[in-house]
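Work Package 4 report. The design task specified in the project plan requires that, given a folded chain encoded as structure tokens, an amino acid be chosen for each position. We show below one input record used in the internal validation round.
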């Protein structure tokens, strides 16, 4: 998983458009996009920003550049708290508009994007997810057994994020981690980056062993809180171990189950005995982890059909509805296939 945080751009007025386009183009210029791809990005940006200004309330654009050596990409997520759409699929048809325009905006975005996802519900607002890849039609050699997506956004006014997520998938297990460096800013970022470097080593996927390794490696840093989740593909069971206030929940057709982490600060003081908690898997289950930069009242069951969408859609909805903006903010969503 790419650990780059998203940049947040507020898009509530047309006057912001030129500055946002300039900054996003600068992010894209660090990728290997050719002139044609940059032109497609310009059109997508223009349509997304126009829709946020015309129809949205509290419009925001989240952007992340992913410098994958095999296939660089740019991710754009448009979120708003507007009136939403009764029939989102109909709005993708050319000529359909509620604002007196030509009605070609969403359809044009979908045609130009490498990946496109739209989720909207009346009174809940709209999320539009767009990914542009360097090699548009390049597919993975083997389809994943799980998908993990993360949104990390710095505290308002900060340029770096002290939250970070990590995932690793092997033939036997899926490992997911969310960490939150104490406070915010550069020192919080350094603490959580040390945790990610530790996880990148070749270690057995045991949650308590991974948290212990992070603790030892993080001594001397500001410290962090974090939770590690491991899914065993053979036994079809989850195991969790965490220290500090990361909220972890499994959401499925039978309801939502939460994991209670142990008290302490990784890198400073953790329990003498870290205990794994085992939880069963059920079909179409979603794993969601959030840092304390978000209110804890979220529930995926509020969003009809959300399990059928890219996990970034749910992450974006939780972010837009529950972000506090007084600390770094992060959401991780994992879906098994």
């Amino acid at each position: 998983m790419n650990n780059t945080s998203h940049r947040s751009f507020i898009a509530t007025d047309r006057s912001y458009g030129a500055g946002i386009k300039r900054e996003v183009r600068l992010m894209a210029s660090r990728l290997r996009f050719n002139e044609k791809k940059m032109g497609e990005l310009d059109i997508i940006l223009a349509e997304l920003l126009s829709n946020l200004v015309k129809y949205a309330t509290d419009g925001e654009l989240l952007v992340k550049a992913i410098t994958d050596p095999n296939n660089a990409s740019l991710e754009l997520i448009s979120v708003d708290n507007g009136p939403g759409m009764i029939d989102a699929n109909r709005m993708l048809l050319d000529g359909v508009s509620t604002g007196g325009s030509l009605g070609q905006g969403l359809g044009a975005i979908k045609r130009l994007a490498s990946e496109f996802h739209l989720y909207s519900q009346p009174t809940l607002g709209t999320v539009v997810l767009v990914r542009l890849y360097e090699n548009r039609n390049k597919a993975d050699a083997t389809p994943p057994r799980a998908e993990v997506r993360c949104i990390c956004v710095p505290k308002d006014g900060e340029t770096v994020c002290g939250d970070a997520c990590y995932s690793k998938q092997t033939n036997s297990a899926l490992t997911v981690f969310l960490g939150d460096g104490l406070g915010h800013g550069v020192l919080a970022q350094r603490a959580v980056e040390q945790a990610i470097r530790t996880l990148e080593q070749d270690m057995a996927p045991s949650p308590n062993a991974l948290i212990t390794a992070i603790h030892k490696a993080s001594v001397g840093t500001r410290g962090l809180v974090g939770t590690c989740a491991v899914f065993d593909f053979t036994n079809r069971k989850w195991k969790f171990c965490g220290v500090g206030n990361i909220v972890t929940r499994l959401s499925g057709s039978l309801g939502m189950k939460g994991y209670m982490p142990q008290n302490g600060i990784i890198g400073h003081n953790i329990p003498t005995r870290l205990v794994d908690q085992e939880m069963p898997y059920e079909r179409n289950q979603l794993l969601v982890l959030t840092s304390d930069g978000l209110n804890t009242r979220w529930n995926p069951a509020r969003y009809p059909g959300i399990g059928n969408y890219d996990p970034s859609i749910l992450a974006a909805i939780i972010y837009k509805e529950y972000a506090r903006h007084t600390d770094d903010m992060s959401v991780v969503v994992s879906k098994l296939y």
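The radius of gyration is 20 Å. Validation will be extended to a larger panel in the next phase.
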